[in-house]
Amino acid sequence: MRRLWLLLGTVLTLTACSTKMTYHFLDWAIEWRLDDYVTLNDAQERQFDKALQSFLVWHRKQELPRYSADLKSLRTALQQGTLTPEFLSNFTDQARQHWLRIFSKTFDDIVPLVASFDAQQVAQIKQQLSKDQQKLHKRYQHKTPEQLIGDADERLQDTLEDWIGRLTVPQQQLVHSYNQQRLQVIRLWLDYRDEWYAQFVDTLDNRHDQSQLRTRLKSLLTTPEQLRSPAFQQQLNANSKRLGQMLVQVAKEMTAKQRQHIQRKLDELISDLDDLSGVTG
User: Fold this and answer.
1) Per-residue model confidence (pLDDT) at position 102
2) Using DSSP, how many helices (H) and how many strands (E) does the chain show?
3) pTM of structure
């Protein structure tokens, strides 16, 4: 069910060119993705649909204005040249707060649904999650450090180019330098995911104790970092600091065309979010 809550949070990363269309079909997309993990019976389907519709109404009115405000602050920082690693760290913290509010809003509706799963449904969830884990291990565990850096370069460059347009050579070098210096945490990350998966499966197996179910789900979904080893967390913190520094340098290197690109993208996204939430002016 962690995937379900993550799906509810996908609106945090909508892109400007498709925000409205994506949001209007979000209920269908969530239900379609949920079907990959568990097939609900009729009663559960009605229960889930009711909770989902209530969530979307709340999210549209209460949360989208928050996302718009965050993006406006980012736009201002870029326009005024005041973007700093500290700003980006605070921006990330705000995103976590958005996630926690989503969790808080949906938790009381989802826990009874999870508690109602029968043995066949739990087996279906386990099977799909196990496939996910196997795919990740197969994808990463045998790659060399050079291959991992190459993959990271491609992913990060694609993300940045979506926001600012084609990267210049100096910007590409900044990305590559960051990935070269970034501490490799793939093995620790896979171990962490394995531990999370094992504890989630155990929680599902003991789902009929709703008090325990609530406690364990809340821990797994809101503070999963507790399962990280100290070494893993330390390396994540170091990488996060380096990432913020690199992004600020990339922003300083933006061309006039790139500044226009991200300005236009932010303006469109903010406008869409304001329209969806009913905010005017």
Assistant:
1) 85
2) 13, 0
3) 0.85
Is 80 within 8 Å of 50 (Cβ atoms)? Answer: no
Burial, 31: exposed, middle or buried (Cβ in 10 Å; 0-12, 13-18, 19+)? Answer: middle
Sign of CA dihedral 190, 205, 213, 115: positive
Instruction: Say how far apart CA 215 and CA 24 lie, in whole Å.
Output: 33
* DSSP E strand stretches across the chain: none
- 160 CA to centre of own chain: 16
Contact 213, 111 (CB under 8 A): yes
What's the token pair of residue 248? 């600020």
In tens, the pLDDT along 72-109 reads 999 999 999 999 999 999 998 888 888 888 888 888 98
Rounded to the nearest 10°, the torsion over CA 231, 152, 23, 251 is 100
Q: Which two tokens stand for residue 66?
A: 């928050």
Among positive and negative, which fits the CA dihedral 44, 47, 52, 55? Answer: negative
Q: How far is CA 224 from CA 4, 161, 178, 215, 219, in A?
A: 15, 31, 26, 13, 6
